Amino acid sequence: MTQHPTAATRRPANRGPKAAAGNRAALISAAREIYASQGLDAPLSTIARRAGVGQAVLYRHFPDRDAIAAAVLEENVRQIEQAAAEGSALAEVLGVLTWHLAQSAAFISLLHADEASGHPRHTRSFARDMHDRVEHALRECLPDGHRLGGPDDLMLAVSMVSGAVGGPTRAQREHRALAAWGLLGVTVGPVRPLRD
Fold first, then answer.
1. DSSP assignments along 25-92, one per residue
2. Number of other residues whose CB lies within 10 A of the CB of residue 162
3. Measured between alpha carbons, how far is 61 from 106 in angstroms, rounded to an integer?
């Protein structure tokens, strides 16, 4: 008797080279979801499956675990920069940032990579660049006289909130992030990703 593969065991169809950009976007989205639920040590095969591609496609775009985590972080930072560039109020931009803090373990761990983190130097350099870009975007929409207007206050607040983000579900992580912003006396707009 011939057994047919089930949907769970069937290999994804090869969509060819024209699908490269879509595959990359699907992998980043899948990595964000998997990292949020399973952490940065989640199997890359799980990310490929969630994206609906084979592992070879994943490795074609991202040669290692650091590369895909960096791509997630880059996309997160790009959305924060875009929200600020659109002239959004600080509360709105913080809503986008908070969504990423609650959704993306890669964002939290790499945003604060430093000498003590154990990350390699090139990862720390990349993280520093991302940190600086987030700070610049937030400062662009920080009103004069805001309570986080001091030289180090803004990113210290982001660090404190990211440190408070914990819990097994995105809803719990979001709740903790909003509670932390509230304790800092900072208003946050709707917690959501930026829609292109």
1. HHHHHHHHHHHHHH-TTS-HHHHHHHHTS-HHHHHHH-SSHHHHHHHHHHHHHHHHHHHHHTT--HHH
2. 21
3. 17
Average pLDDT over residues 25-46: 88
- Listed residue (106, 113, 150, 107) closest to 128, CA to CA: 113
User: Any idea of the CA torsion for 144, 80, 153, 89, to the nearest 10 degrees?
Assistant: 30
pTM: 0.78
Q: CA-based Rg of the chain, rounded to a whole angstrom?
A: 18
Structure-block tokens of residue 58: 């994943």
Share of the chain above pLDDT 90, in %: 46
Please check whether residue 5 is in contact with residue 42, taking contact to mean a CB–CB distance below 8 angstroms. no
